[in-house]
Amino acid sequence: MRRHTRNRRNSKHVSQDDTKKLTTILLKIVLILLVLFVIVVIFNITSNWLKYHRITEQYIETLSSVEENTTNSDDNTQDADEDVTFNLTAIGDVMCHNTQYMDAYNKDTGEYDFSYVFEDIEYYIKNSNITVANLETTFAGEERGYSNYPRFNSPDALAYNLKKLGVDVLSTAGNHSLDTGFDGLSMTIDVLNNADISHVGTYKTQEDRDTILFKYVKGIKIAFLNYTYGTNGIAIPSDKPYCVNLIDEDLIKSDIEKAKSQDADIIVASMHWGTEYSTVSNSTQNELADFLFKNGVNIILGTHPHVLQQMEKRTVTLEDGTTQDGFIIYSLGNFISGQNAENTRTSIILDLQITKHADDTVRIDNIDYIPIYMYRDSSLSTKKMKLLDIEKTIALYEDGTDTSIGNSTYNLLKSELEKVSKILNP
Questions:
Q1: Rounded-to-integer distance, Cα 113 and Cα 107, Å
Q2: DSSP state of 169
Q3: In Å, what is the CA distance from 18 to each residue of 31, 32, 195, 325?
Q4: Three-state secondary structure call for residue 181
Q5: Burial level of 396, CB count in 10 A (0-12/13-18/19+)?
C-alpha cells in the first residue's frame, strides 16, 4: 500500500518536471517569435521611411520645377518656337450701393464682408489666367462716411474680397472717379495697392500716368489702357490734369504707340462710355471702336451703361496692311450693384481664349460667357444679395436639387437668359 503511494508521488514529480520543461520551451519559442516580429516591424518602418524619403525628395524636386516654371513665366520667358494659349476673363461694373454694404455688414464684429456674394460664381474667375473688372466706387475711408449714389464711397473690404475672388486688374477711370475728390482718388489707389490689385485709369502723379500698365501671362506681355467720357461734372483739379484719363484720341494714340514701343504682345482698352441703360451702342462708341482697332488695340472692354450691349469679333486691317483679330463688347453691364432697373441685374462673365503663335500673331480662338444674375433673397435678414450662375440655377431647379429660388425667380431667370443671348448677338 505504501509502495503504491510512493510510486504515485514519483509519477507526479516527473509530470511536474515535464511541464516546466515544456513551459520553458514555449517561452523560448514566444521570445523567438517576438524577436522576429520586432525585426519585421523595424524592417518595414525602415523600408517605409526610405520610400517616404524618396517620395519627399521627388515632391520637392517637382515643386522646385513648378516654381522654376512659374518664375520663368513671371520673368517673361517664352519659347519662341511654341504657341502659347491663355484665357482672359472680363466682368463688368463693380458698384456698391448702400443696400449692398448694409447687407455685408456684421453688427457683431463691426466689419464688412462681401465674399458671400461671389460664392456661386467664383470658380470661373479663380480658374482664369487673368481677370479684369471695372470699379464704379471709391475707397476714401470710413471716417468720411460710406455713401451711395450719386457720390460713392465704399468699405475697403470690397477691394480685398475682389482680390480673394481673383480679380487681377481694375479699370478706375470712370464717371465716379472723383466722387470723393482727389484725396479720395488717391486713397482708392492706396487701398488697391495694399490689396495687391493692379489698376489703370486714375493716378496720383504724372509719372504714374505716363507709365503703361503691363501684366504677364505665360510670358505674354499684355498692356492695359483705360479712359472715361467724363467725371459727372466734377472738375478735374487744374494742377492735377493727369489724375483721370479722359477720352482723347491724341492721348489714346500716344499711349498705344508707347505700349507698342515697349513690345506689348496684346493691348486691352477698357472704355467707360455709352448711353446708360441702352442695350445698343451709340455712334460715338462705334467710331471710337474703329479708331482703337485701327491703331492696334486687340480687345475693347466697354463699361458704364449698367446693362449689356452687343459684342463682336473682327478681322482688323492695320495701316501697314497686316491683319489681326479684334474683339469688342460695347458694355459688360453691372457685375454687382443694388440697381433694380430693367437689365441692370443681369450680366456675364466673359471668357476669351487667346493664342499668341510662334510667328507673333495673336488670335482670339474662342469666345464664351457665363450669364449671371444679381439675386436678392428677401427671406433673409442679412447676406441677401448673391450672384447666381443663371444656367446652373435653372438646371438645379428643374431637376429638383435646389428649388429655393421659387417658381417666380425661376421663370425670371429663364427670361433673362433669353435676353442675354439676344443683346449680345443681335
A1: 11
A2: E
A3: 20, 21, 85, 99
A4: helix
A5: middle
The pTM (predicted TM-score) of the whole model is 0.82
Question: CA–CA separation, 124 vs 415, rounded Å?
Answer: 23
How far from the centroid of its chain's Cα atoms is residue 273's Cα? 24
Residue 316 grid coordinates: 482688323
DSSP conformational letter for 384: -
Angle between helices 406-424 and 390-398 (to 10 degrees): 140
Q: What is the mean pLDDT of residues 104-111?
A: 96
- Quick check: 351 and 128 in contact, CB under 8 A? yes
Distance of CA 168 to the CA centre of its chain: 7
- pLDDT per position as a tens digit, 258-278: 999 999 999 999 999 999 999
Strand-pairing partners, residue 89, are 131, 351
String of b and e for 16-49 (b: at least 16 CB within 10 Å)?
eeeeeeeeeeeeeeeeeeeeeeeeeeeeeeeeee
For the stretch 313-341, pLDDT in tens is 999 999 889 999 999 999 999 999 999 99
